[in-house]
Amino acid sequence: MTREEIVEKVNSLLSEEFEVEAEAFTPEANVKETLSLDSLSLVDLVAIIQQTYKIKIPVSDLREIKTFNNLYDYIESHLPA
Amino acid sequence: MTGIGEDITALIPQRAPIIMVDRLESVEGDKAVTSFMVRPDNYFVGAEGQSLAEAGVIEHIAQSASAFSGYRARMAGAADAPVGYIGEVKNFHCFRCPRVNEVLHTTITMGAELEGITIIKGETSVDGEIIADVQMKIFVKPQ
Amino acid sequence: MLLENRYYRIIDRKAEGQDTVFRVALLPDCDIYQGHFPGNPVCPGVCNIETVKECVEILTGKRLFIGFIRQCRLTAVASPDICPWVNVRINCTPAEEGFAVTAKMSDDERVYMEYKGVMKVL
Predict the structure, then answer these.
(1) Residue C40: closest CA among chain B residues belongs to which residue?
(2) Which of A27, B40, B51, B93 has a 20 to 30 A CA-CA distance from A45?
(3) What is the ipTM of this complex?
(4) Helix A3-18, helix A39-53: angle, nearest 10
(5) How many Å apart are CA B95 and CA B93, to the nearest integer?
(6) Is the pTM of this model over 0.90?
(7) Of B18, B46, B62, the CB nearest to C2
(8) Overall domain count for chain B
(9) What is the CATH number of the domain that holds B106?
């Protein structure tokens, strides 16, 4: 799975789930702010990644993910073999 | 196995007049099944005493999830059932209200969890007919 | 009505543009608090959902059925101690088989519930 495929897939999933236009997902934009996530909706982000890529994001790692680039990097580097 | 079929008040924090689940019937991995009979004196049965209001169906599903997490907590050695609140109800469909004396069977599927908030899916049926389904977030206060 | 004058009481009602705002008192002596939870009275989220439904029934003069809830976020714990009264702001527009309803339950301090769904006419 190439990075472009991850970026495209993640953007469409998040755009649909959080009802935000994908144009707003610039690589350096802050994920929480762009999707206006709070403690209730943050778990939806974790659930989507877990469902789609079978990757469980622990809280400690989640805190490090600030921008969309961070998210794409995390998925790319944690894809199951 | 202890917990399953046990006195429900050991698995959930709610008490009369708002106990909305009778038994935890089975647990298998991230799925559990509960049962509940709609009685005439149920808090959510209206004055005309015919059926359980939609809000009652949601509370029944939430307490079914609560019984499941209470069971898991007891299995992990907790003394009493954790207090949980509904944080979000999403895509709730109610196809019909269950009538008094009908028995509900609800399947709960435990989903992702993050900092005390757990996503659950619930589906309730009466004699095999699906009457409601929903996705919920249950917030369990850390003990 | 299932909960009116048992769980809540309507104190005031006024139109505000497209919305109607009910001012609702949460009744501290309601028997639900004996079991939800013993020694720790907390409003059950579902009772606030039922309260919204009953306000919409009063507003429309119709018996309604909650067929679909798109999303209901319960964003803060409510109770008669925390918030003896709350504003229930309702926007209700005709939709297929009933009404599209959005509602917000709040007081001056915080928002307790945001609700979006469809209520069918019985």
Answers:
(1) B83
(2) B93
(3) 0.93
(4) 140
(5) 6
(6) yes
(7) B46
(8) 1
(9) 3.10.129.10
